[in-house]
Amino acid sequence: MEKRFFDETNGLWYELGDGYYYPCPTVSEEEKRPISIWGQQHEQYLKEHRQIVYNTLLLSGKLNAYLADIDRQAQEQYELLINQMKQSRGITEDLKATDPLTWVGRMNNAQACAREIVNNEIIYN
């Protein structure tokens, strides 16, 4: 028996181990995009709560691209929310210069709120 073989029907490589052939998912160079904290959190969520979706994406070789897309969406929404909250709550550079502690408190609050919204709408959804 061969140690490795390629199945043309599904496009996957298989490797012999313990008498069984196991799929060897590969990721193309296009799909190797960096994944930051948002994508990593979503991956952990998929592993724990959406195992079928996780395994389907992993075996099809689309997991990395999917997580990179989720990561990009979450980061864009986070930055947009932070900017909107800074405007609506009066968090300005003038405030930072005149009262740094108030500025830090308001920024921390805005970041926590934005993280919560992104987590609820994108990461754990």
UniProtKB/TrEMBL annotation:
Domain of life of the native organism: Bacteria
Pfam families: TnpV
Name used for this protein in its record: TnpV protein
Organism: Acutalibacter muris
